[in-house]
C-alpha cells in the first residue's frame, strides 16, 4: 500500500493533486477520466489499495483461458452470442451479428472442442526438488509452494500452443517444481543467492500474460526449476510529485497501479491491452508498449530507475535523472531481458497528472492505403492523439459483428454509416473501407485543437468522422478479443495475434504480403475453412508504425492443429522479416521467435547479448532460455 | 451469350490445343462476333481500378522520381520544374492508353488477316489458359514470349482477348512508335514504348523502372516483355537480356508484391511473315524503317498461306519459389526506391533469364518443314525425292527420340513432304518426273519481284555484297533459318561429336571408346566459341556435356559402359556425320573470320568490320566448303563478339568510335584449335569439292 509514503509528500504536491481531482469532478461525467473499456478501472466501485489478483489465481481467473472466470462469450438459450459477467461494458449484452459472422468462418455450434473441466492434478508432472535449496528458503522464511495447481498456474503464458495443451488436460514434461513468493527486494537477493549456491533454475513470473512462451520451462532443464511469483511485491513505495516520479515494486499488476495512482490524481499512462493482468516487472522485462504511448511513452521512456538482482549482484544506477551520458545505457540491457539476466524488483517510473479530458473518435477511409497515408501525415505533423489505430476492412467488419443489440450507450453506428453511405460517401466500397479509432487525452483545449487538426488531415485522405461510439467500441474490442479466442477454441478454432514494426513506406506492402502469406500457408496446410487474416496499425512513430495481426481458422480435418498453426505463424513471421518488418514491436522474443533472431542481426551483435549473459549469469541460473540459445 | 470461348464446348486436338480460328469460324461473322463479344477478364485481387493516366501521375509523384529529380537538379544545377517536365515528356512517350473499342477494331482486322494467312489454324494449349486465369487473380503476371515476328504481341493480345484474359501491357520497342496510325492502335491496346538502350540516361531509367513497377504492383494489367530483347532473325533463340528482368524482379525482391509470376510463352510460326525481310537483312540490306507504309507493303503477304501458329503457355515461374533462398530483408536498411541488387541476386537473375529462354525453347513446336529444310541444307545442289524422303524419315526418328516437338500431321510422309514443297515453292523447285521418286529437288534460284525490289534500292555501298550475290544467297539463308530452329536442340550432341574425334581409343577387337573427361577441353572450347549463336548458360558446361552425351545415348550412337567411359557404336557414323554437317557452316564461318583477321592484321571500325568480313567471304563463294549462309551478318557479328570474348580480338575506343584490333597469337591459336574440328578445311584456292554431307559414306 502507498499510505505511509503518501503522508511524506509535500503539502504543495497534495494540493495540486486535490485540485486535479476537483477539476475532474467539476467537469461532470462526460469528461471524468476513466478507461471505460477495462473492467475494474471503474474507480467508483473498487477501492484504491485493492490488489485484484489473489495469490490463488485460479479462484478468480480461468486456469485454461484468458481473464476472469465469470467473463466469457457464450451462446445463450436463444442461440445468440452473449458476453457473461458484469465487469465489462459488453457484459450481459447480446451480440446478434456475431453468430452469423462466426458461421461465415465455418463455425458450427454442434462441432465443439470443449476444454477439460479442471486441472487434473494426477497428470501434473512430479516435481524435481532440490532439498538444500528448499531448506534454505524455509530458513529465511520465504513463502513457497509445491502444490500442483500453483505450479500449473505459473507454468505458462498465453500462446495458443500453451492453452491448447491445457485445454486437453495435458502438460509439458517440465513445469515449475516449486513456486516462490518473495515479498521485497531483500527477499529476492537472498533467493538468488540461494539459487546460485544450490544451482537451481529461476524463472520470474509476473502476470503470466506473455505470448512468446517466455515463462515456459525448457524441456531439457534437469535442475530444480523455481518459478518466482512476483505479484506479492506490489506496493507503490513512494510518489514524488515534485519530480513526478513513483517508485513501485515490480510485481504490481497494471490495473492496481493505475487505480492507486488515480486516487492521487496521477497515472503512468502505460496501458498495454493486457494491463488488467500483466505486471510492471513483466513490462520492463519484455519491453512493453502501451496503447497511449503517444502521450506517455513506451516503457523505456517511462522508466527512470530500476533495480535488478542478478547472480553477479544488483544492477542499478545511483541517481534518478532524466537522461545521462555515461557509456552504453545500462537500462537498455535490463529492459527486454526477458528474465534471462535477473529479477527486476523495483522500478521508478515517470507519472503524470490525470488528464482532464478524454474523448473517443473514429474516422472511416475508403481504403487501408488512404488510412495509412493519413496516419503517416499525422505522425509527421506530430499531432497524433494518445492512441490512433487503423483497422483493415476485415477487422472493421469483424468490429461490426461485435455490435451489441441496440441499446443506450452504443448508438447505432451502422445506421449512421448507411446514411453517410447513400448521401456523402457514395463510392466507399464496403469491402475496402476501413476505420481508424482515436483516443484523445489531455487538457480540453488541447484535445479540441488536436481533434480539429486530426480530422482536417483525415479529410485530405478522404477520411470521414464516424462518431465516438465506433471509436470506443474499437478499443473495447481489444480488451475482449482474448476472451473471444477462448470461445473460438470451444468451436475448433485456433487463433493468435502477433505484431511488428515497420517503416512508413513499407506498411501497406507488409500488411498485404503477410495477409496473403497467411492465406497461402493455410491453404498449404490443408485448412478447409475461411481464414481470418487481418491487421491494424496500432502505433505511429516518426519513422514508422506498429502493425498488429490477427490470424485464425477452424482446424477441423487437420491432423495436428497446433503444428499447422505454428507453420502458418512462422511463415507469417518470415514474410514480415522479408518485407522489412522487425521481429517484434512489443511482444518480445521469448522462445517462440528465438529461431528468427539470427536473421535479424549480425553474429557480433548476438555475441554482445551472449557475453552480457555470460558475465552476469555464468551458471545460467536464469535458465528460461529466452532470447538466444 | 456472346461469350465466344467456352472451355467445355471447344474441341481439343490430341495435344490439348484448340484451334482458335476454327472455333471462330464455327460462328457466322466470326471476326465480328469476336470484336463485339462481352469482355470481362478476371481481376488481380489487390488491383485498385484506375485510369491509365493515373498510373503516370503516380509515377510523377513517386519517391523514386522525386529522389532522382532532386538529385539531378542538385548535381546539374537545373531547376526541378524543368526536369519534371522532362519526366512528363518521357512518360507521355512511354505510357499506354486503354481504349477497348479500338482493341475490338484491331481484333476484328487481325482475325480477318489471320483467317487469310494462317490457313492451318492458330493453336493454343487451353489447359494452361485455365490455370492462368486462376493465377492472374492471385498474382501479378508477366508474359515472356519468344520473339520471332511482329505478329508476336498482336497475337498474344488477341489470344488474351479471345480467352477473356486481361490484355497485357506490352513493352514494345521505340521504333514502332514511328508507325503513326499503328502506334496509336498498339498504344490503345496496351503497348508502351521503350528505348532500345537506356545507356546512362538515369532519368529515363528511373521513369521506366517506376512505370513498370507501378503496373506490376497494382496489377493494372499483366505485362509482356521479350526477354530476347529483339526479334530473332535466324530461327535460333537469342541470348537473354538481364536488365529488364531485374526491373521486373525488383518489386518482389523488395517485398512490394507477394509474388510475380513469369509465364514463358512459346510462339511457333510454321512460316514467318518476315522470312525474306530477315534474309535480306542478314545479307546487309538495311532494315526498312518500321514505317506504316512498310507494313502496308508487307500486306502483299495476304495472298499466301503461312500455315499454322502454335502458342504455348509454359508453366508459370513464381519468383517467390525461384528466389525462395534469397533473403529479401537485405533490402530493409535503405529506401526501396534506390536501385540496388546484390551480386547474388544479379547472378540469380541471369540464371532465371536462361531458364526462361530454355522453357521457351522446350515448348516450341517445329513444323515438318524444318526437318525437310535441314536435309535440303546439306544438298546445295539438290537431292532426289527418294533420298529426301529417306533422310527426312531417318532424321524424324532421331528428333523423336530426343523428344523434340514437331507437328507431324496424320498424313503419310510423302504427302507431308509434297505439301511442304508446295508451300515453299518460292524457295525450292522440284523438277517433275513421271517417277516421283526420282524427281529432283533443289533450291530455287529465282528471285521474286518483291525481292529484287529490296536489292535495287539498297545497293549503294561499295563494300556491300553485289545484288546478284544477294539474290543467289537469299533462299539459302531462308532455308537455313528454318533448319536453325532445330539446331537449338541439336547443338549439345553435335558439339560432343566434334569433341569426340581426337579422343577415341580403339582396342584389339575394334571396340571404340572414349572417356567423358577427355572431351571436356574441346567441348568447353566449342561452347565458348558458339555461345553467342546458341544458348549456353554460363557455368553449366558439365551439364551441357552430359545432356549432349545422353542425347547421343538415347539415339544409340554411343553407350555408357563403365564410369564415364562410353563406347561408340558401329552405326554411329550416320548420325555423327549428319550432326557435324549441320554445324560445319558455323565452324567454317568462324574459321573464315579468323583467316580474314590473320591475313589483314590491323585495326577496324566495329561498325563496319562485319560487312568487310561478309564481303570477303562473298569473294570466296566459289571455294569448296564455303556456303551462302556464312554471309549472314548475324552469324558474323556473333563471330566477332565471340572472338573478342576469347581475346583473339581486342577493342578500344578511338575518340567515340569503337575499334577492333587483332591479337594475332591468340587468334592464331583459336584458328588452329578450330581447324581441328573442320574435316575439310576450305582450301581457299581449290575448286569446289563434294558437298559436306555425303550420304554414300553412311
Ligand atoms: C491479450 C493480451 C494483450 C496484450 N497486449 C499487450 C500490449 O498491448 N502491449 C504489450 O507490450 N504487451 C502486450 N501483451 C503481452 C504481455 O502482456 C506483455 O509482454 C507483458 O509485459 C507481460 O507482463 P507479465 O507481467 O504478464 O509478464 P510474464 O508473462 O509473467 O513474463 C513475461 C517475461 O518477463 C519476465 N519477467 C516477468 N516479471 C519479471 C521481473 N519482475 N523481473 C524479471 N523478469 C520478469 C518473465 O520471466 C518472462 O520472461 C499482451 C498479451 C495478451 C495476452
From TrEMBL, chain A:
It catalyses: a long chain fatty alcohol + a 1-acylglycerone 3-phosphate = a 1-O-alkylglycerone 3-phosphate + a long-chain fatty acid + H(+). SUPFAM superfamilies: FAD-binding/transporter-associated domain-like, FAD-linked oxidases, C-terminal domain. Keywords: FAD, Flavoprotein, Lipid biosynthesis, Lipid metabolism, Peroxisome, Transferase. Residues 172-354 form the FAD-binding PCMH-type domain. It is an enzyme of class 2 (transferase). Its cofactor is FAD. Pfam families: FAD-oxidase_C, FAD_binding_4. Its EC number is 2.5.1.26. Its main location: other. It comes from the Eukaryota. It is found in: Peroxisome. Pathway: Glycerolipid metabolism; ether lipid biosynthesis. Belongs to the FAD-binding oxidoreductase/transferase type 4 family. PANTHER family: ALKYLDIHYDROXYACETONEPHOSPHATE SYNTHASE, PEROXISOMAL. Catalyzes the exchange of an acyl for a long-chain alkyl group and the formation of the ether bond in the biosynthesis of ether phospholipids. Homodimer. This is Alkylglycerone-phosphate synthase.
From TrEMBL, chain B:
Belongs to the GPAT/DAPAT family. The keyword Membrane applies. It is a peripheral membrane protein. This is Phospholipid/glycerol acyltransferase domain-containing protein. Transmembrane segments: none annotated. Its main location: membrane. The keyword Ligase does not apply. Residues 141-270 form the Phospholipid/glycerol acyltransferase domain. CDD domains: LPLAT_DHAPAT-like. Keywords: Acyltransferase, Membrane, Transferase. Signal peptide: none annotated. InterPro entries: GPAT/DHAPAT, GPAT/DHAPAT_C, GPAT/DHAPAT_LPLAT, Plipid/glycerol_acylTrfase.
Amino acid at each position: 500500500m502507498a499510505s505511509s509514503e503518501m503522508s511524506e509528500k509535500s503539502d504543495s504536491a497534495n494540493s495540486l493533486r486535490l485540485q486535479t481531482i476537483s477539476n475532474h469532478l467539476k467537469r461532470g461525467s462526460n469528461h471524468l477520466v476513466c478507461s471505460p473499456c477495462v473492467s475494474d478501472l471503474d474507480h467508483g466501485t473498487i477501492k484504491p489499495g485493492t490488489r485484484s489478483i489473489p495469490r490463488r489465481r485460479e479462484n478468480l481467473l480461468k486456469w485454461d483461458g484468458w481473464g476472469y472466470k465469470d467473463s466469457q462469450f457464450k451462446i445463450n438459450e436463444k442461440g445468440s452470442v452473449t458476453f457473461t459477467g458484469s465487469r465489462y461494458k459488453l457484459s450481459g449484452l447480446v451480440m446478434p451479428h456475431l453468430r452469423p459472422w462466426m458461421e461465415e468462418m465455418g463455425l458450427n455450434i454442434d462441432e465443439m472442442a470443449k476444454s477439460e473441466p479442471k486441472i487434473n492434478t494426477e497428470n501434473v508432472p512430479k516435481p524435481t526438488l532440490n532439498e538444500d535449496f528448499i531448506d534454505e528458503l524455509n530458513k529465511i522464511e520465504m513463502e513457497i509452494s509445491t502444490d500442483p495447481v500453483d505450479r500449473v498456474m505459473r507454468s505458462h503464458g498465453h500462446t495458443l500452443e500453451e492453452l491448447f495443451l491445457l485445454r486437453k488436460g495435458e502438460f509439458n514434461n517440465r513445469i515449475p517444481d516449486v513456486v516462490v513468493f518473495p515479498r521485497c527486494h531483500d527477499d529476492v537477493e537472498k533467493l538468488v543467492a540461494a539459487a546460485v549456491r544450490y544451482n537451481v533454475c529461476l524463472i520470474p513470473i509476473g502476470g503470466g500474460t506473455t505470448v512468446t512462451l517466455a515463462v515456459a520451462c525448457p524441456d531439457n532443464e534437469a535442475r530444480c526449476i523455481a518459478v518466482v511469483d512476483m505479484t506479492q511485491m506490489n506496493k507503490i513505495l513512494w510518489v514524488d510529485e515534485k519530480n513526478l516520479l513513483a517508485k513501485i515494486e515490480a510485481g504490481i499488476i497494471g490495473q492496481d497501479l493505475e487505480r492507486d495512482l488515480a486516487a492521487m490524481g496521477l497515472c503512468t499512462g502505460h496501458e498495454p491491452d493486457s494491463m488488467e493482468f500483466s505486471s510492471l516487472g513483466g513490462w520492463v522485462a519484455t519491453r512493453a508498449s502501451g496503447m497511449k504511448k503517444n502521450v506517455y511513452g513506451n516503457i523505456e521512456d517511462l522508466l527512470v530507475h530500476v533495480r535488478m538482482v542478478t547472480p553477479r549482484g544488483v544492477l542499478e544506477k545511483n541517481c534518478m535523472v532524466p537522461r545521462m551520458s555515461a557509456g552504453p545505457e545500462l537500462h537498455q540491457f535490463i529492459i527486454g531481458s526477458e528474465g534471462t539476466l535477473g529479477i527486476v524488483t523495483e522500478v521508478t517510473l515517470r507519472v503524470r497528472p490525470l488528464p482532464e479530458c478524454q474523448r473517443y473518435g473514429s474516422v472511416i477511409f475508403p481504403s487501408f492505403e488512404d488510412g495509412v497515408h493519413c496516419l503517416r501525415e499525422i505522425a509527421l505533423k506530430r499531432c497524433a492523439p494518445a492512441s490512433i489505430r487503423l483497422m483493415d476492412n476485415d477487422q472493421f467488419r469483424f468490429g461490426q459483428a461485435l455490435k451489441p443489440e441496440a441499446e443506450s450507450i452504443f448508438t447505432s453506428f451502422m445506421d449512421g454509416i448507411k446514411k453517410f453511405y447513400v448521401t456523402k460517401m457514395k463510392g466507399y466500397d464496403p469491402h475496402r473501407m476501413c476505420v481508424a479509432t482515436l483516443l484523445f487525452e489531455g487538457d480540453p483545449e488541447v484535445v479540441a485543437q488536436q481533434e480539429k487538426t486530426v480530422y482536417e488531415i483525415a479529410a485530405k485522405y478522404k477520411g470521414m468522422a464516424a462518431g465516438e461510439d465506433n471509436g470506443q467500441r474499437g478499443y473495447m474490442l481489444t480488451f475482449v478479443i482474448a476472451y473471444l479466442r477462448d470461445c473460438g477454441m470451444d468451436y475448433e478454432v485456433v487463433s493468435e495475434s502477433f505484431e511488428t514494426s515497420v517503416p512508413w513506406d513499407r506498411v501497406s506492402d507488409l500488411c498485404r504480403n503477410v495477409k496473403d502469406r497467411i492465406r497461402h500457408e493455410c491453404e498449404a496446410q490443408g485448412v478447409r475453412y475461411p481464414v481470418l487474416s487481418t491487421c491494424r496499425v496500432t502505433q505511429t512513430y516518426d519513422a514508422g508504425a506498429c502493425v498488429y495481426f490477427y490470424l485464425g481458422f477452424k482446424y477441423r480435418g487437420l491432423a495436428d492443429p497446433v503444428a499447422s498453426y505454428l507453420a502458418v505463424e512462422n511463415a507469417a513471421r518470415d514474410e514480415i522479416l522479408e518485407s522489412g518488418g522487425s521481429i517484434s514491436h512489443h511482444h518480445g522474443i521469448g522462445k517462440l521467435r528465438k529461431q528468427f533472431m539470427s536473421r535479424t542481426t549480425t553474429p557480433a551483435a548476438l555475441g554482445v547479448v551472449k557475453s552480457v549473459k555470460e558475465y552476469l549469469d555464468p551458471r545460467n541460473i536464469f535458465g528460461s532460455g529466452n532470447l538466444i540459445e | 451469350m456472346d461469350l465466344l470461348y467456352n472451355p467445355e464446348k471447344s474441341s481439343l486436338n490430341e495435344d490439348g490445343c484448340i484451334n482458335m480460328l476454327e472455333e471462330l469460324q464455327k460462328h457466322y461473322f466470326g471476326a465480328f462476333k469476336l470484336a463485339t463479344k462481352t469482355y470481362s477478364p478476371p481481376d488481380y485481387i489487390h488491383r485498385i481500378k484506375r485510369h491509365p493516366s493515373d498510373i503516370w501521375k503516380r509515377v510523377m509523384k513517386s519517391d523514386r522520381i522525386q529522389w532522382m529529380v532532386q538529385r539531378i537538379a542538385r548535381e546539374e544545377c537545373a531547376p526541378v520544374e524543368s526536369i519534371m517536365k522532362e519526366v512528363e515528356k518521357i512518360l507521355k512517350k512511354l505510357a499506354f492508353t486503354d481504349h477497348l473499342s479500338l482493341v475490338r477494331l484491331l481484333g476484328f482486322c487481325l482475325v480477318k488477316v489471320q483467317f487469310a494467312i494462317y490457313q492451318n489454324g492458330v493453336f493454343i494449349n487451353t489447359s494452361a489458359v485455365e490455370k492462368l486465369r486462376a493465377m492472374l487473380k492471385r498474382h501479378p503476371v508477366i508474359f515472356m514470349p519468344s520473339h520471332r515476328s511482329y505478329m508476336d504481341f498482336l497475337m498474344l493480345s488477341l489470344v488474351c482477348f479471345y480467352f477473356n484474359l486481361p490484355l497485357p501491357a506490352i513493352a514494345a520497342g521505340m521504333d514502332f512508335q514511328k508507325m503513326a496510325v499503328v502506334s496509336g492502335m498498339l498504344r490503345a491496346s496496351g503497348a508502351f514504348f521503350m528505348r532500345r538502350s537506356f545507356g546512362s540516361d538515369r532519368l529515363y531509367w528511373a521513369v521506366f523502372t517506376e512505370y513498370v513497377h507501378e503496373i506490376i504492383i497494382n496489377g493494372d494489367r499483366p505485362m509482356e516483355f521479350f526477354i530476347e530483347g529483339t526479334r530473332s532473325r535466324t530461327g535460333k533463340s537469342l541470348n537473354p537480356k538481364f536488365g529488364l528482368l531485374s526491373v521486373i524482379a525488383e518489386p518482389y525482391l523488395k517485398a512490394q508484391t507477394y509474388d510475380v509470376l513469369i509465364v514463358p510463352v512459346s510462339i511457333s510460326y510454321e512460316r514467318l511473315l518476315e522470312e525474306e525481310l530477315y534474309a535480306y537483312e542478314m545479307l546487309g540490306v538495311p532494315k526498312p524503317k518500321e514505317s506504316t507504309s512498310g507494313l502496308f507493303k508487307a500486306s502483299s503477304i495476304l495472298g499466301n498461306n503461312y500455315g499454322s501458329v502454335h502458342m504455348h503457355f509454359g508453366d508459370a515461374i513464381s519468383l517467390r519459389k525461384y528466389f525462395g533462398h534469397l533473403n529479401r530483408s537485405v533490402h530493409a536498411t535503405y529506401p526501396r526506391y534506390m536501385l540496388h541488387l546484390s551480386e547474388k541476386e544479379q547472378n540469380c537473375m541471369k540464371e532465371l533469364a536462361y531458364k526462361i529462354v530454355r522453357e521457351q525453347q522446350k515448348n516450341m513446336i517445329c513444323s515438318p518443314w524444318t526437318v525437310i529444310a535441314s536435309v535440303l541444307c546439306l544438298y546445295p545442289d539438290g537431292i532426289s525425292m527418294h533420298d529426301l524422303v529417306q533422310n527426312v524419315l531417318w532424321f524424324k526418328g532421331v528428333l523423336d527420340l530426343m523428344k523434340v516437338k514437331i507437328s507431324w500431321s496424320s498424313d503419310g510422309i510423302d504427302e507431308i513432304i509434297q505439301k511442304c514443297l508446295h508451300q515453299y515453292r518460292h524457295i525450292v523447285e522440284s523438277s517433275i518426273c513421271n517417277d516421283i521418286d526420282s524427281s529432283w529437288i533443289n533450291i530455287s534460284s529465282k528471285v521474286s519481284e518483291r525481292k529484287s525490289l529490296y536489292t535495287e534500292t539498297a545497293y549503294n555501298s561499295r563494300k556491300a555484297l553485289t545484288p546478284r550475290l544477294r539474290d543467289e544467297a537469299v533462299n539459302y539463308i531462308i532455308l537455313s533459318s528454318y533448319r536453325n530452329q532445330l539446331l537449338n536442340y541439336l547443338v549439345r550432341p553435335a558439339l560432343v561429336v566434334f569433341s569426340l574425334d581426337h579422343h577415341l581409343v580403339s582396342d584389339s577387337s575394334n571396340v571404340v571408346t572414349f572417356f567423358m573427361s577427355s572431351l571436356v577441353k574441346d567441348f568447353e572450347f566449342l561452347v565458348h566459341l558458339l555461345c553467342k549463336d546458341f544458348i549456353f548458360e554460363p557455368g553449366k558446361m558439365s551439364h551441357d556435356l552430359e545432356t549432349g552425351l545422353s542425347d547421343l545415348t538415347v539415339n544409340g550412337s554411343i553407350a555408357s559402359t563403365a564410369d564415364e567411359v562410353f563406347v561408340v557404336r558401329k552405326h554411329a557414323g550416320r548420325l555423327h556425320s549428319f550432326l557435324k554437317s549441320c554445324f560445319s557452316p558455323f565452324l567454317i564461318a568462324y574459321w573464315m573470320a579468323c583467316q580474314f583477321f590473320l591475313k589483314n592484321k590491323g585495326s577496324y571500325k566495329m561498325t563496319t568490320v562485319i560487312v568487310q568480313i561478309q564481303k570477303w567471304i562473298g569473294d570466296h563463294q566459289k571455294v569448296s566448303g564455303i556456303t551462302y549462309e556464312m554471309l549472314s551478318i548475324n552469324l558474323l557479328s556473333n563471330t566477332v563478339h565471340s572472338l573478342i570474348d576469347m581475346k583473339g580480338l581486342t577493342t578500344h575506343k578511338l575518340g567515340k568510335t569503337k575499334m577492333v584490333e587483332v591479337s594475332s597469337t591468340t587468334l592464331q591459336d583459336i584458328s588452329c584449335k578450330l581447324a581441328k574440328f573442320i574435316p575439310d578445311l576450305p582450301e581457299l584456292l581449290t575448286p569446289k569439292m563434294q558437298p559436306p554431307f555425303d550420304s554414300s559414306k553412311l
